[in-house]
């Protein structure tokens, strides 16, 4: 045990950093709406002048703090923007794009840095996968939420009745995310609220946590949501020497970070704070590559060093590959098959993958977009990787 600890200590010090990938949630945002009894008196322009659902000034400051952290941590590794070495990719939501802009403002001060995005978030399998159609995932989550709602509707009957009287909604377990959307986001921005909010907010937050995690809390569910992103990140590490890529920053959503943590087997089962960042570092030590994963969920403490199941802090790339091989989705076609999106009836003869383009007429348009943004690509690298497992 002492030998292992000494090895890890000196390894972390002397390992050579080769690549960093950062998956960061957007900054603080405005609620999407308010509750019916609040609509006549709530002036969104007063408290959230940029409008519902938009990044707040506080959120932009949070984003700039992330950029400052990255600049400090990786000083000497990426000091200036180089488009061959650095890629900034965002979900096509304004709050994510603006978060990416805030990060680059302090990560690369006084430099012009492009932020790449996707044509529409409902097709963005990389950074908004929870909005991409997946019949199997939707079915599983619907059933799981129904079971959870049946339990909490009984356990929290009085709370829901109270919330219904106070909000004007007919509140039950299925409505708790909307309640959280309003109460928590107003609270986080210091918006004055009735006294009753203080008495219920902790319970509402806990219920939100349960309903959020149940969307991704299994290997199958998380694979259908972030298996493609995990594959892309792994591919970029494997090709680092050829590509010369040193830093990739992904600006995304809490659902994506939550699912990715379940995909990697490192979830803390908590809600993901604004601008929390999952950081994947690729190191080289004595000619061998290692993967190190960090989770930064607070600006007041150092990032948490995460351990993949069965691995040390510095995880040998071979062990990493074995762990993720069955959690990766190689391309959009595989995603549609796993999600059971295709309208092909089962038949005795083998499934012909060439029939997919006729089922997915939008694929050509999507692919041209991928080439344009230069940050999302289809690959079959993992067919051989999966064979090894």
Structure report:
The structure is a single chain. By secondary structure, the chain is α/β, with parallel strands linked by helices. It has helices at residues 2-14, 44-47, 57-73, 94-107, 135-155, 157-167, 176-188, 195-213, 219-238, 240-243, 254-263, 317-324, 332-338, 356-359, 363-373, 382-388, and strands spanning 16-25, 86-90, 247-252, 277-285, 288-296, 304-306, 315-316. Strands 1, 2, 3, 4, 5, 6 and 7 form a seven-stranded mixed β-sheet that branches. Helix 5 crosses helix 9. It catalyses: a phosphate monoester + H2O = an alcohol + phosphate.
Element pattern in H and E: HEHHEHHHHHHHEHEEEEHHHHH
Share of helix, binned: 40-55%
Q: State mean pLDDT (0 to 100 scale).
A: 88
- Looking at how many chains there are and whether they match, the oligomeric state comes to single chain
What overall form do the CA principal axes indicate?
globular
Number of helices: 16
The CATH topology name of the largest domain reads: Rossmann fold
Number-wise, the strands total 7
